[in-house]
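can u do me a favor
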């Protein structure tokens, strides 16, 4: 029983100390029970309502060229058009290796017959050499 009374008194004391400390921290000269200060009459109010920003225009489509549809179907399953067009300019051998990696390592749904058409397209839009003549 004495222990219970001691615990209750100790809890009340801790609550009082915590409450007093929070009032002192909030504003040392604040009166107990006083609410937050009222806004001043000359304070400018921030505009309320939706805000808008202007984003830069970024092409969301693959550029035109022979093989575009094949590349779109096979590549855009996993990559955004922006990811494809944002790649550095590579030579044909690098694009062949990239398409091969996508097929063999990542399981891209690219048939063997589509590889040359996709590589030609990638070289045309992001290559360091001219695509082969038709």
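np, heres the sequence
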């Amino acid at each position: 029983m004495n222990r219970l009374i001691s615990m209750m008194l100790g809890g009340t004391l801790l609550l009082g100390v915590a409450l007093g400390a929070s009032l002192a921290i909030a504003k040392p000269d604040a009166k107990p029970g006083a609410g937050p200060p009222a806004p001043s009459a000359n304070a400018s109010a921030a505009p309320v309502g939706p805000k808008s920003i202007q984003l830069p225009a970024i092409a969301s489509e693959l550029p035109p060229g022979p093989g575009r549809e094949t590349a779109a179907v096979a590549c855009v399953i996993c990559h955004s058009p922006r990811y494809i067009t944002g790649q550095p300019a590579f030579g044909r051998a690098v694009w062949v290796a990239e398409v091969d990696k996508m097929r063999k390592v990542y399981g891209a749904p690219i048939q063997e017959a589509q590889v040359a058409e996709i590589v030609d397209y990638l070289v045309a839009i992001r290559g360091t050499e001219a695509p082969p003549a038709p």
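Residues 68-126 form a domain with the Cytochrome Bc1 Complex; Chain D, domain 2 fold (CATH 1.10.760.10). hope that helps!!
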